[in-house]
Amino acid sequence: MPWFRRSKQNIAPDTQKRELPDGLWEKCPSCGEIIHKKQLELNLWTCLKCDYHWRIGSKEYISFLLDKNSFKEMDKKMRSADPLEFKDTKKYTERIAEAIKKLDLYDAVRTGTGKIEGRDVALGCMDFEFIGGSMGSVVGEKLARLIDKAYKDKLPTIIISRSGGARMMEGAYSLMQLAKVSARLTKLAEAGIPYISILTDPTTGGTTASYAMLGDIHIAEPKALIGFAGPRVIKQTIGKDLPEGFQRSEFLLEKGFIDFISHRKDLRANLIRVLDLLA
């Protein structure tokens, strides 16, 4: 009977791409799981299915690591000059201005003091979104001032690294910051003040070659890329295939470069334990 037969004449194929509404959902880059942004935030920006760790900024780390409303920011509006008058496809000053407007940050690190479980700490946290988290003169100066504050007030110091390394637009001025921050950390070590380095994805270049690997304790997030030169550059240089998971947190833990790996949801609790141990 014809009314039981489905006509295909007026059924058009579904050729339109179905897109998720902006601002509501995120797709996990690792497993493809679709997660509501509010649920992702409650899970500290990690995948509920595969534990993939999204790259997040300093505001997010401060929100779940420090006691509520305890953070007091230092040197907030310090911004880079353009000593080399660098210009590639765009002036360096223009890139700085665009990043400030977009991120409400004046450079690639946020520094200040706060409390963890009532204990005073000095905290520096890098923001990869600001020109790749690159380390220029402002990043170096803000970290140096943070460490000076920690030295003066005897505060345990925590630096969370996420960086592509030195900022090429500042040339030697950028490279000078590696030595400056490392020298300040020596003062902390001589005074017996703990320094905890947290390495996240990615921590590379001059950042790894200086303060990121000078901690009393090194903690890494799972599967974070940590190294000086990247795997692709190394492979091209030596002409050999690299071991599986090369330069990832788990590989570095196996080789003794870091002390332990912490899931982001356990990071605050692990910091409390480490601070208790070092105190």
Mind explaining what this structure looks like?
By secondary structure, the protein is of the alpha/beta class. The N and C termini lie far apart (84 Å). It has helices at residues 37-42, 58-65, 92-103, 137-153, 171-191, 205-208, 231-238, 249-255, 267-278; strands at residues 25-27, 34-36, 72-74, 109-116, 119-126, 157-163, 195-203, 217-220, 260-261. β6, α5 and β7 form a beta-alpha-beta unit. The model is unreliable at 10-21 (pLDDT under 50). 35% of the residues are buried. α4 packs parallel to α5. It has two domains: 23-54, no CATH class; 56-278, 2-enoyl-CoA Hydratase, Chain A, domain 1 (Alpha-Beta Complex), CATH 3.90.226. The strands form two sheets. The chain has a seven-stranded mixed sheet, sandwiched between helices. It is built from nine helices and nine strands. The longest helix has 21 residues, at 171-191.
Features:
zinc-finger, ATP-binding, 9 strands, 9 helices, seven-stranded mixed beta sheet, transferase, 2-enoyl-CoA Hydratase, Chain A, domain 1, 279 residues, two-stranded antiparallel ribbon, alpha/beta, metal-binding, single chain
Please trace the helix and strand order, writing H or E for each element.
Answer: EEHHEHEEHEHEHEHHEH
Q: How many strand units?
A: 9
Number of helices: 9
Please state the structural category.
alpha/beta
Principal-axes geometry comes out as globular
Query: Distance N terminus to C terminus?
Result: 84 Å
CATH hierarchy class name of the largest domain: Alpha Beta
Unreliable stretches: 10-21
Helix content: 25-40%
Largest sheet: 7 strands, mixed
Reported by name, the CATH topology of the largest domain is 2-enoyl-CoA Hydratase, Chain A, domain 1
Number of domains: 2
Overall pLDDT score:
91
In percent, how much strand structure appears in the residues?
15-25%
Fourth CATH level, the homologous superfamily of the largest domain: 2-enoyl-CoA Hydratase, Chain A, domain 1
